[in-house]
Specification:
heterodimer; A: 481 residues; mainly alpha; 18 helices; B: 423 residues; two-stranded antiparallel sheet; 2 strands; 71% helix; 2% strand; elongated
Chain lengths: 481, 423
């Protein structure tokens, strides 16, 4: 093995003398450091801002004066999605998805104020994050440094000299790959440091962080092997460079844009407007609260009357209006869930279609697994939406129940004509304290790793394929010498 | 002429020339096809929502007209708005995938409605769309680099340089012919699919020419850059590597750094702040004495001052008054938010003067009306439409006029202009 090490050491000495290699590596390192520092600062600032807004919304909710509970249903609540610690490494879709939702009765609002809608088109050039540097820029720098690995030796005739000294083709390729691997390891270093910092000081979970690091190492390794393999196929350095640039462009720039377009065209999502209309239509079809003779609500009333053994809603021991509000909220909320599930399923299908292109492009697989392990993938946002909807339903029903139990039916009916009843329906604000605060449950380590698994498998498959290609190239080179 | 054709033949005989040109043509064509398909899908969506919206309005009308309560009509009726893609949107899809181009509003306070988002797949939006602008900005320079990096160094390395120099009358015009074919054919491969797409979408000629002009400038920029690097007399390999590195810095690294700088320098948290503040204002309305709210409202809308006073209980005129006062109360923050977004856009344009990729990106998307400015223009039209909605319902609500089926038909429609109204 020492011959491999000697070749690698010799190569590294040459790289240190080569200005192109040195400059491009230094630029990449500088970018990595800038990306890591700004990403960490941005994640901390965003998370803190969201926490502050959340605290403000909580204080405001609890500080509301005595009110009719239904007023509080419409006053509603704001919830904010916290940013996971690893978002400092890969913010994923965070800037595309809104991070706050206004929750109120009978309606499901969208998550708003995503950064991309608030940014100019610059945001579509890609954000400079540690993940972006490693996924997109690092392979290109490996290409710049390594394209001549074998091709140049061949061009200059040194390949035959080496062979004449009894160096095997496999040792030659191995040495070249080892040298380029050292470069890749240097590229990975700032990311590894950032990751260590996030785990030590930022509370990032250790297993997903290690998985991320290992995956990026595999990703860079497969590029190292690809660069050396391609370099061995060409008789001159120029052709090798052009081929590698083409390969990089195809897999890292072109396919990642084409894949989602195909996924979207194959399975277009309905607009929010259409979904709103469809939900309203389905709600009306099941039970129309505006129709006094609606069978759904008539059945419900009959059931309540029978349960309490009275003939008229006015004789119930509870406020019927509150009960009706509850059953109506249950109906609309079940529709929200049904349509959300449908939309999520469709989005997952789109995601799977796009990920299938990971078979053609390791960058696609890498991006997918990186977001999933960092907890910043779309699934994380869906988790937030689902939890926010469950929370919305919970607090609305809690307030509706207050309306049913803390108010009398007679007061509730006459609150617009009788000033005393209007006072009595405004219940004590201490009730608002009883409403729980929203606490977001982020993905567990197991959930993150499961979500990252398909991408991880693809990257490993790529690595194996590159190892195989590398061995074939070595045999081929051996025969040619 | 013959000498030009001779150069063309020489060029096309090169191993990389024809495949690269065909690749450029294929990629540009598929981008145009994808863009046209996406734009017609957006047109279809706008078409498709009309009957659904009409059905929804009819269902609201059916139960509201039982009582004829105008307040309920305004409360329950959502009005559709939409933003048709421009004829050139196919070439630069821009922000239309992350911002809604169809949105419903009602006569309630607007600030709680206008920031609503669309149900889009953020993961597929993340890498950006595959459109003609992308092909031009990212891929065209790489194709040009592939064709131009060895123009002179290739001849030198093949040992033909001395022969060429001795044979041709003017070396300068020889290189000019060679560069002209390479750049011209690349430009042709890029612009022909675009021109066909523009013809299909019936885009106005002046804007098509402007886009073609921008594309020509951008292609020329990269061609000149390649020639300048060639003057340094490096080998082909160093030429290719340094040009590709320049491409990387100009199209990926510097725009990324610029975005970091702009977003850090101009925070736009006013968006969240104003929605939080607006909710407080609106809901405080329930607890304030009704007369106070009405007096505030009459300051803005004195024409309703002499209508019958609000009684003891709930009345919609008071409800719509405090809804509107909620918007009025955050007007300053709305302006600040908007100013923040415009400042971000403005700085991007300024950076566009320095970075060609950003400049062309800004220019193409302005022409295609798919940028942040277009998104804000749509919001302005929604604001104007919302004003029309409010003022349509006010006479019914403030004068207690029964709302009939005919009145539903009279409600303002999006796209239908009344005098002095931009929507």
């Amino acid at each position: 093995m020492s011959i491999v090490r000697r070749i690698a050491a010799n190569d590294i000495v040459q790289m240190r003398r080569s200005r192109v290699a040195l400059v491009s590596l230094l630029i990449l390192l500088a970018l990595s450091i800038v990306a890591a520092l700004t990403s960490i600062a941005h994640r901390d600032a965003s998370d803190e801002l969201r926490a502050r807004f959340q605290a403000q919304a909580d204080v405001e909710f609890e500080g509301q004066p005595a009110r009719h509970p239904h007023r509080m249903v419409h006053y509603g609540h704001f919830v904010f999605r916290p940013l996971p610690p690893l978002a400092a490494f890969d913010p994923g879709v965070d800037s595309f998805t809104g991070n706050t939702i206004f929750l109120e009765g009978h309606r499901q609002n969208s998550a708003n104020f995503g950064d991309v809608r608030q940014s100019s088109l610059l945001a579509r050039f890609g954000q400079l994050t540690p993940a972006f540097v490693l996924q997109v820029l690092a392979p290109l720098v490996l290409v710049f440094i390594g394209f001549g690995a074998i091709a140049r030796e061949r061009e200059q005739g040194t390949l035959r000299v080496l062979a004449a000294h009894g160096v095997s083709a496999r040792a030659m390729l191995g040495g070249k790959a080892a040298a380029l691997g050292v470069v890749a390891a240097i590229m990975l270093a700032p990311a590894a440091l950032a990751m260590a910092w996030l785990v030590a000081a930022g509370g990032a979970p250790i297993l997903p962080a290690l998985a991320l690091l290992a995956a990026y190492a595999a990703y860079l390794a497969l590029w190292v092997l690809a660069v050396v393999t391609v370099s061995s196929l060409f008789s001159n350095a120029r052709s090798s460079l052009v081929a590698l640039l083409g390969l990089w462009t195809l897999t890292t720039i072109l396919l990642p844009r084409i894949a989602p377009d195909i996924a979207l065209a194959a399975n277009p999502l309905p607009t929010r407007l259409e979904t709103d209309i469809a939900i309203q239509r389905d709600v009306r079809a099941t039970g129309d609260s505006h129709n006094p003779d609606d069978p759904y609500y008539a059945d419900f009333r009959a059931g309540v009357l029978e349960q309490y053994g009275v003939d008229d809603v006015a004789d119930l021991p509870v406020n019927y209006s509150g009960l009706q509000a509850m059953v109506s909220e249950e109906l609309t909320s079940s529709m929200f869930d049904r349509y959300a599930e449908r939309q999520f399923a469709q989005q997952r299908q789109q995601g799977n279609t796009a990920l299938a292109f990971g078979l053609l492009s390791p960058a696609i697989a890498m991006r997918d697994l990186s977001m999933a392990a960092a907890g910043t993938d779309l699934e994380g946002h869906r988790r937030f939406l689902t939890q926010a909807e469950a929370y919305r339903f919970g607090i609305v029903q809690q307030l509706n129940q207050l309306q049913a139990e803390a108010l009398t039916y007679a007061d509730d009916r006459s609150r617009n004509t009788d000033p005393e009843a209007a006072q009595r329906v405004r219940i004590d604000p201490s009730h608002w304290h009883d409403v729980p605060e929203f606490s977001y449950r982020s993905a567990t380590t197991a959930e993150k790793l499961t979500a990252a698994a398909p991408g991880l498998l693809l990257v490993l498959a790529w690595l194996l394929a590159m190892v195989a290609a590398f061995r074939i190239a070595a045999r081929r080179l051996g025969r040619a010498l | 002429m013959a000498i030009w054709l001779h150069e063309l033949k020489l060029f096309l005989r090169q191993r990389m020339a024809l495949p690269l040109l065909l690749l450029t043509l294929a990629v540009a064509s598929s981008a145009v096809v994808a863009g046209v398909a996406e734009v017609s899908r957006q047109h279809d969506v706008i078409e498709r929502i009309q009957p659904q919206q009409a059905e929804d309005e009819a269902a609201v009308a059916a139960f509201v007209t039982v009582s004829g309560d105008p307040g309920s009509a305004a409360y329950y009726t959502f009005h559709a708005t939409w933003d048709e893609p421009s004829p050139l949107a196919f070439a630069a899809l821009g922000q239309r995938d992350v911002a809604p181009y169809v949105l419903r509003v009602r006569a309630l306070s607007l600030e709680s409605q206008i920031h609503e988002g669309e149900n889009y797949n953020a993961e597929t939006a993340l890498p950006g769309r595959f459109d003609w602008a992308f092909v031009l900005i990212y891929l065209a320079p790489l194709f040009l680099i592939a064709l131009l990096h060895d123009l002179r160094s290739g001849e030198r390395e093949a040992g033909r340089m001395a022969m060429i120099q001795s044979m041709v009358r003017s070396e300068r015009s020889l290189w000019l012919r060679r560069v002209a074919w390479r750049v011209g054919l690349t430009y042709l491969a890029l612009s022909t699919p675009f021109a066909i797409g523009a013809a299909i979408m019936a885009a106005p000629a002046s804007e098509v020419l402007a886009m073609l002009g921008l594309a020509a400038l951008y292609v020329l920029f990269w061609a000149v850059l390649a020639l300048l690097v060639a003057r340094l007399k490096f080998g082909s390999v160093t030429n290719a590597a340094s040009l590709a590195a320049t491409w990387l810095v100009l199209t990926l690294v510097l725009p990324g750094l610029a975005l970091l700088a702009i977003n850090a320098a101009i925070p736009v948290r006013q968006g969240v702040e104003l929605t939080l503040a607006q909710r407080e204002l609106v809901h405080a309305g329930w607890d304030r004495p009704k007369e106070e709210t009405m007096q505030d409202f009459f300051q803005v809308h004195p024409e309703w001052r002499d209508t019958p006073p609000v009684g003891l209980g709930f009345h919609y005129k008071w409800y719509y008054a405090f809804q509107h006062m909620g918007d009025v109360g955050v007007a300053e923050q709305t302006t600040a938010y908007r100013a923040g977004l415009e400042a971000r856009d403005g700085w991007t344009r300024r950076i566009g003067y320095l970075l060609p990729a950003v400049g062309v990106q800004v220019g193409l998307h302005r022409l295609a009306e798919t940028d942040l400015a277009a998104q804000m223009a749509y919001q302005d039209r929604i604001r104007a439409f919302h004003d029309r909605l409010r003022t349509f319902y006010y006479p019914y609500v403030f004068n207690d006029v029964t709302f009939t089926m005919d009145d539903f038909a009279r409600a303002p429609r999006w796209g239908q202009t009344t005098t002095g109204d931009p929507s």
